[in-house]
Amino acid sequence: MSEKILGKEFDKLIESLSKLPSIGEKTASRLALYLMKNPPDLTLQIAKSMVEARKKVKICHICNNFIFNKSCICSDKSRNKKLLCIVENVFDLISIEQGGHYNGQYHVLQGLLSASKGVSPKDLNIEKLISKIKKTNYDEIIFATDPTSDGEFTAQFIFGEIKNYCKSISRIAIGMPIGSEVDYIDKNTLAKSFIDRKRM
Ligand SMILES: [Zn+2]
Predict the structure, then answer these.
(1) What is the pLDDT of residues 98-145, one digit of tens each?
(2) 63 CA to middle of ligand 1, Å?
């Protein structure tokens, strides 16, 4: 890269930023340049909040959600323990919560199964989710993974494993624009997808 011209520190920064998802070398270089030309306070503030958040985050052993210092949403006694909504990530959980049409439990997969990206059931600890479903007598299980090929594949795979353990299993994707992502669609569309959910 630019080591001979600019020095190894700059190269190292670009290399580190490139490790983040959706950031190629070009974007990493642009971000590095931006940080270098702005006052050091900005870099320090970003680095500090990254380290602090990463240090404090814990994963809930029941629902796989992120927790920071306070108790997890799954320990809220006012929520329906017999409803389970399966989501890809924490942003999807937040979107559904903001929609205000759901008051049950969640399971955060922290990813989607994907043959093309090599993500297997083991990588997402699907076994843990399946055994939780087998042990809990849920009234309804709702799949809220994106209507993309990985989102569909993930929902169908888990459905195949749990279909005999819950009488009502549904999918919210119908009504959502094909190819859209749960955390990007507006609240009204998401709310409608919940109301219009179809049995699997
Ligand atoms: Zn939890």
Answers:
(1) 888 899 999 999 999 999 999 999 999 999 999 999 999 999 999 999
(2) 4
The CA 94 to ligand 1 mean position distance, Å, reads 13
31: Cβ–Cβ under 8 A, 6 or more apart, which residues? 17, 23
The model carries a pTM of 0.82
- Beta pairing, strands 66-68 & 105-108: unpaired
Q: Is 61 helix (H, G, I), strand (E, B) or coil?
A: coil
CA 156 to CA 162: how far, in whole Å? 10
Task: Give me the residue label for tokens 């090929």.
Answer: 149
Kindly list the protein residues that place their beta carbon closer than 5 angstroms to ligand 1, a single-atom ion: 60, 62-63, 65, 72, 74
* Tokens 């994963």 belong to residue: 59
Domains and CATH numbers, the chain: 3-57 (1.10.8.420), 74-199 (3.40.1360.10)
